[in-house]
Structures are given as C-alpha cells and as structure tokens.
Amino acid sequence: PKTLALWRIDDGKLQANYWDISSTGTAAGEFKSKNATKLLSSLVGARRLVVRLSGRQTQDADFDITGIDGIATQTAAACGVRLRS
C-alpha cells in the first residue's frame, strides 16, 4: 500500500511522490534503499520538514529537524550506505 506524500524542506520547492505505508499501517515513508538515501541526503543541512500524507484521510506534520546532519549520517552508515554531499 502507498499514500500520496507532499513535502517541503525549508523553503524549497514542494515535492510529491507515493510513499510506502508500513506493514502496521502506522507510518509512511521512503523505505526502499535508493529512495530513502536520496531523501535522507536532502535533509542534511535543513532545519524544517513539512509533510502532508493523503489517503483515506489527510495528515499534516511539521518537523523541526535542526541538527539532523549527524543523525542522518549515522542512520545511513547503519544501513551500509554513504550520503552524497
């Protein structure tokens, strides 16, 4: 199952894609390695992530991601990938 995701990083352009829904139905995201790495890389240096998920219902979330650089690098390393600069 997938859900339509619209997101903006800081004041960047609005992006859209279909994100996977977790097997429990409690989360959605870019869970495939290539897509996850691309999204995680785009968060480096960012301060804000705004997401809208549209499916059976619409859900909005606004995240303060200040300081995500170290976490993103560690997450990628734990998955055995390197973030692009």
How does this model look, in words?
- The chain has 85 residues and is of the alpha+beta class.
- The chain has 2 helices and 5 strands.
- Strands 3-2-1-4-5 form a 5-stranded antiparallel sheet, with helices on one face.
- The longest helix is centred in the middle third of the chain and has 11 residues.
- It starts with a strand and ends in a 7-residue tail after the last helix.
Topology record:
Layout: E1 2-9, E2 15-21, E3 28-29, H1 33-43, E4 48-54, E5 58-64, H2 68-78
Antiparallel strand pairs: 1-2, 1-4, 2-3, 4-5
Helix pairs in contact: 1-2
Q: What is the terminal separation in angstroms? A: 32 Å
Q: Structural class, please?
A: alpha+beta
Rg, Cα atoms, Å = 13 Å
Residue ranges: pLDDT <50 for 5 or more in a row?
Answer: none
Mean pLDDT: 91
Order of helices and strands: EEEHEEH
The largest sheet, given as strand count, sense and whether it forms a barrel, is: 5 strands, antiparallel
Biggest sheet, spatial arrangement of strands? 3-2-1-4-5
Residues in β-strands, percent: 35-45%
What share of residues is helical?
Answer: 25-40%
**How does the overall form come out from the CA principal axes?**
globular
Helix count from the secondary structure assignment: 2
Could you tell me the number of beta strands? 5
